Amino acid sequence: MRSKWTIIFGSNSLRYSRTPIEYLNEFRIEEAKRLLADSRTKIADIGTRSGFNSNSYFAKVFKMYTGITASEYRELLFTRNMEKKPQLADS
């Protein structure tokens, strides 16, 4: 009989086609992306708060899942927020 974890995460599962570690890392990266919206929090602290024990592993996994570094992601968020703010008319 297969365990519930094999059923949920196994390669034959129709529901998930990733390992528990991949699922966990995906969850952690989503949390890190949420935390990166706060520009006052250091990126190293965000890695730790997201559940990563190593800053280098956090950086590696973040780039693997998003294609960019955490710093670049934060800069994109900042740029997008600045573009959304209404411009004051010069008078």
Tell me about this structure.
The protein contains five helices and no strands. The protein is elongated, with a radius of gyration of 18 Å. With 91 residues, it is mainly alpha-helical. Helices cover 62% and strands 0% of the residues. The mean pLDDT is 84. It has helices at 4-9, 20-35, 43-49, 55-66, 70-84.
Question: What would you say about this model in short?
Answer:
By secondary structure, this protein is mainly alpha-helical. The protein has helices spanning 4-9, 20-35, 43-49, 55-66, 70-84. Helix content is 62%, strand content 0%.
Could you list some keywords that capture this structure?
5 helices; 91 residues; mainly alpha; single chain; 0% strand
* Number of separate helices: 5
Write down the Rg.
Answer: 18 Å
Strand content: under 5%
Helix content: 55-70%
Instruction: Outline the low-pLDDT stretches.
Output: none
Order of helices and strands: HHHHH
Mean pLDDT: 84
Alpha-carbon distance between the termini?
A: 75 Å
Sheet with the most strands, sense and barrel status: none
Query: What's the overall geometry?
Result: elongated
Q: Given the helix and strand composition, which structural class is it? A: mainly alpha
Task: Please report the total strand number as a whole number.
Answer: 0
